[in-house]
Protein: Substrate-binding domain-containing protein
Organism: Spirosoma endbachense
Amino acid sequence: MHNLFTYYRLLALLLLFGGTNSCTTKSETGQPKKVAVIVSTLNNPWFVVLAETAAAQAKALGYEAKIFDSQNNTALENDHFENAIVSGFDAILLNPTDSDGSIVNAMKAKEEGIPVFCMDREVNSPEAATCQILSDNYSGCVAIGKYFVQTLGKKAKTAPVNYVEILGLVGDNNTWNRSKGFHSVVDRYPGFKLVAQQSADFDRNKAMEVLESILQAHPDIDAVFCGNDAMAMGAYQALVAAGKAKEVGVFGFDGADDVMNSIRDGKIKATGLQSPQTMARTAAQYADEYIKGKRDFAKKVPVAVELVDQANIADYQDPKKP
């Protein structure tokens, strides 16, 4: 009897301490693992698609997923990382707020053993992120630059083509990769003159205000190249207000629905179509593979960009039609 009592006492102690062991993994407790989706801003429909697709793919793979909005603020992004680490998230799908400023956040997660997969935007460190899935922004804007010259080349033979460039966030590598790709083509043609270059932070309203101000100093422009489609729409609004929408061509980048529809309507001239869905799904898939044990990932995975203009827009489905 004494031996039987001792056996049950030991069994009870094992169950007690075994059940509260802090080293127990989530899979052992039966709780689903969690993926954090941290994006630069949800004030842009394009990033909403990126975030929601990433979260949906993570859920389809069996994970809990939560979206965090950094509102283009690296300090707020830092708070989200702290939250993700403390809350026990198993992977982070990141759309960084700043190529340099976001490094410390990604490194913080890495130090805690949490992989970070960057989507669309990169961090300037080969060590911080497990993998970065990025649009080929430079090549995409080389194509836009070629189309820009092709579209306006006839005028350049008789008079300078005066154009404006509206840049995105100055701390984002995408801003400069797009600008460099565009200028690698256009700067080779002496008939094209850049009369103003200004940042509008990838924001539609800011781009409208920026172009309204530029038009006061340079009323006779022929074209506007914008670093994303939100700014292209803002620039187009400014041109409409100034009565110049028909004579000034607007070129964007992203492939956002409103710009695609504007191209269909003969308003915006062209855009570079990225695939936020491809980047988001790839990031979620890689996170799943990491959690299941894979460690060998390419540091950067490029995603192709397609030139969409008024000549080929019919090849792309209108989201308003079934």
DSSP finds eleven helices and twelve strands in the chain. Residues 137-156 form the longest helix (20 residues). Residues 1-25 have pLDDT under 50 and may be disordered. The chain has two domains: 34-134+276-302, 137-273.
